[in-house]
Write a structure and sequence with these properties.
By secondary structure, the chain is mainly alpha-helical. Helix content is 56%, strand content 9%. It has a two-stranded antiparallel sheet with strand order 1-2. The protein is globular and about 55 Å long. The chain starts with 13 loop residues before the first strand and ends in a 5-residue tail after the last helix. The mean pLDDT is 84.
Length: 111
């Protein structure tokens, strides 16, 4: 008998540390993906920058519910959009390359 045990699949774990507090990034579910995709499509149509930022904050909070709106509003634009990139997995290659480069420099001194 062949069995697929989805409970054994390892989820990608992501955390974000802001102001000394670590927040878990929730795993992307199909429902969350559909809701996020719909909101992202709507976001492209919005011309008002303030409404775009409010929508961006909602998108972040959907993935990191323990991050308060107050905390997100106090962040710089650069940090806010870095959080978005991290949640979306756009920084995975950058982070992997930086970790690999750092490890190469420590070992035998060769790059």
């Amino acid at each position: 008998m062949k069995t697929l045990n989805l409970d054994e699949l390892a989820a990608v774990e992501r955390t974000i540390t802001i102001k000394g507090e670590t927040h878990n990034v929730t795993e992307m579910t199909v429902g969350n993906f559909l809701d996020t995709s719909k909101e992202a499509d709507e976001l492209e149509k919005i011309k008002d920058p303030a409404k775009q930022l409010e929508s961006t904050i909602r998108l972040i909070r959907r993935s990191v519910p323990t991050l308060t709106e107050e905390t997100l509003r106090s962040m710089s634009f650069e940090k806010l959009f870095t959080v978005v990139k991290f949640i979306q997995g756009e920084m995975d290659k950058e982070m992997h390359d930086a970790a690999t480069e750092g490890a190469g420099q420590e070992g035998d001194g060769k790059k």
